[in-house]
Amino acid sequence: MNSGIFHSTYKADMGLRHTYLEKARWVIFAIFLLAFPFFANRYYLTLANTIGIATIGAIGLNILVGYTGQISLGQGGFMAVGAYTAAILTINMGMPWWASTLVACVVTAIVGALFGIPSLRLKGLYLAIATLASQEIIIWIVTHWDAVTGGVDALVVPAPMLFGITMSSDFNFYWLVWALAGVTALLTANLFRTHIGRAFVAIRDQDIAAEVMGINLFKYKLLSFAVSSFFVGMAGALTAHYRSIVTWERFTVDISVLYLAMIIIGGLGSVRGAFFGATFITLLPATLTNLGRSLKSTFPVVDSILPFIQQAAFGLVIILFLVFEPEGINKMWKDIKDYFRLWPFSY
Amino acid sequence: MQRDFRHTLNSSPLNPGDLQLNVEHVRLGFGGVTALFDVSLSIYQSEIFAIIGPNGAGKTSLLNCISGLYHPQQGSITYHTGNAEHQITKLKPYEIAELGIARSFQNIELFRHMTVLDNIMAGAHVHMKAGLLSSMLYWGKTQREEIKFRRFAEDIIDLLEIQAIRDKQVGELAYGLQKRVELGRALAMKPAILLLDEPMAGMNAEEKEDMARFVLDVNEEHGVTIVLIEHDMGVIMDISDRIAVLNFGQKIGDGTPEEVSKNQDVVHAYLGEDEDANPVKQMNL
Ligand SMILES: Nc1ncnc2c1ncn2[C@@H]1O[C@H](COP(=O)(O)OP(=O)(O)O)[C@@H](O)[C@H]1O
Ligand SMILES: [Mg+2]
């Protein structure tokens, strides 16, 4: 029986994965991820790819909101910056998709840091309103700067190619997006075991004490905006290359709210939580649609009211989560793990 | 139990007795309220300097001026680090922290959702240099830095006898332990001056005794200068080298415990009319 975790060296104690069980779970998860595309049909591959993009975006948002405590409603806008930058560079300058993606990440990081400046003066709801303004400003620019963004018309991005292979096919894109999601998760998990990550969390928990401990609030808040936006921009750029069509409608404030729901339901301030939330929020409407379809044959009326049921069910699930497990799916996962760690003596 | 410290907690290059902090004619007001009138005092390396006075006297405000949370309207605060002399009156709190002034707060201000260990590690922030990219890669250099400061944090954990709770979230801990962790977090800065705002308030006798012992350890073994606000006159008379007395924002006396306990102004103003109930006199110094 494993009654607790002990380590003989600081290096081991400071590692990311601690127990054999934990390592075993990771191996199983990795095998699942590797095997999945060989068994899944196109529908499930599309879902998996959507989850992959959402995971990257949600980890990015969680860095800012969950770890640093800076509430943001600008997610959609920042994703738009990433998507449009990648699309424009590829369309107009013929940049390869991977280069335009990288530039898009950097550009979004800079834009994010700029729109993060108000966070020095504003907290909580006031900051939420300021980031909402960034969201609207970005979308306004996107829809009005016709010469560059094509205005309200969609941009069509050429298919991303690598050594003659089309990367945007569902099967190929799967490898790309999940490799990037893995890298994003690893980089973020690493960041939060170093002094920079602790500075972010310190700002969230007690900003005055953080400053008195020598943390430059200006620098670290903007850094958090930049790092967060880097990954959010990546999610945007991947959306552009995967869907090959970029329109502003994909990046409205609805998306900002949806991503906030992901990290709240998944677990604030946790990489794993961002993944859980992205999975849940992507699968929920798909499941509801499938459920509706199968009910349609028996209850034809379902068809006409399905969209409303979907919206209501979506809202209901979120409310239930907030009421019964405010710490999110990640907390449920921890509880389950703790239960089995001491199993069969779990009382 | 105590193992030898592999690290010093004191980053000040001064010799004991050197002038370290000079507060001159500080005036601080908030709208109509004046919290400090023309307060001057000098603090010397490696002493324990106590600030006493009734509630609302301006003690916390004075610490806030020193650590940069408040900026006085008049006067200056000069901080000496051997070869340099810093005007810290207008500096930001993080700049003052980088110069080596650490503190704890009257109402505990820990990072509630972090573990005890992470709180202490966060206290060492000013000494940690890893950049963003190497932190995200957790490359050799960054990992070595983290491990090095982890060892240092363990020294502090041993000193404060909080081994058993190192992985607990501080928000879950009892009040007395939280006060201890807050001391630990400040110590992780390797302070040249440590400002403690009522570190023993609300503690029972045993906890107070422990805390006093830790403060003395840090002062005697590491030579860290301590500026201490405290109401318990027994502790104050026992451990401080010099005392300043504030009343309604004014300094009404300072000196050694003995001098202060004989100062008529102090006895009168601070201890009220009823001189028989004078705890300073009862100390029988
Ligand atoms: N931020 C502030 N805004 C307004 N008044 C303040 C502020 N901080 C302190 N004061 C006032 O300054 C005076 C001294 O307070 P303080 O320094 O906290 O006293 P002490 O720590 O000695 O009990 C009090 O009258 C208090 O109300
Ligand atoms: Mg006070």
What is the element string of chain A, with H for helices and E for strands? HHHHHHHEEEHHHHEHHHH
The CATH H-level superfamily of the domain at 19-111 and 189-283 in chain B is: P-loop containing nucleotide triphosphate hydrolases
Count of helix runs of chain A: 15
Rg of chain A (C-alpha, Å)? 21 Å
Q: Pick out the low-confidence regions of chain A.
A: none
- Mean pLDDT of chain A equals 88
Given helix and strand content, the structural type of chain B is: alpha/beta
Radius of gyration of chain B: 19 Å
Structural class of chain A: mainly alpha
How is the biggest beta sheet of chain A arranged? 2 strands, antiparallel
Strand elements of chain B, count? 10
Q: Give the CATH class of the domain at 19-111 and 189-283 in chain B.
A: Alpha Beta
Q: Main sheet of chain B?
A: 6 strands, mixed
Q: What are the segments of chain B in which pLDDT stays under 50 over at least 5 consecutive residues?
A: 273-278, 281-285
Trace the largest sheet of chain A across and list its strands. Answer: 1-4
Could you characterize the architecture of this molecule?
The complex is a heterodimer of chains A (about 350) and B (about 280). Chain A is an all-alpha fold. Chain A is about 75% helix and about 0% strand. In chain A, the strands form two sheets. A two-stranded antiparallel sheet of chain A has the order 1-4. In chain A, strands 2-3 form a two-stranded antiparallel ribbon. In chain A, α3 packs antiparallel against α11 and α3 (about 40-65) crosses α13 (about 270-295). The longest helix of chain A is centred in the middle third of the chain and has 27 residues, at about 215-245. Chain A is globular. Chain B has a domain at about 20-110 and about 190-285: 3-Layer(aba) Sandwich (Rossmann fold), CATH 3.40.50. Mean pLDDT of chain B is about 90; it is low at about 275-280 and about 280-285. The chains are: A mainly alpha (about 350), B alpha/beta (about 280). The interface of A and B includes residues 188 and 198 of A. The site of magnesium ion has 3 residues of chain B, from α1. Magnesium ion (MG) binds near residues 59, 60 and 106 of chain B.
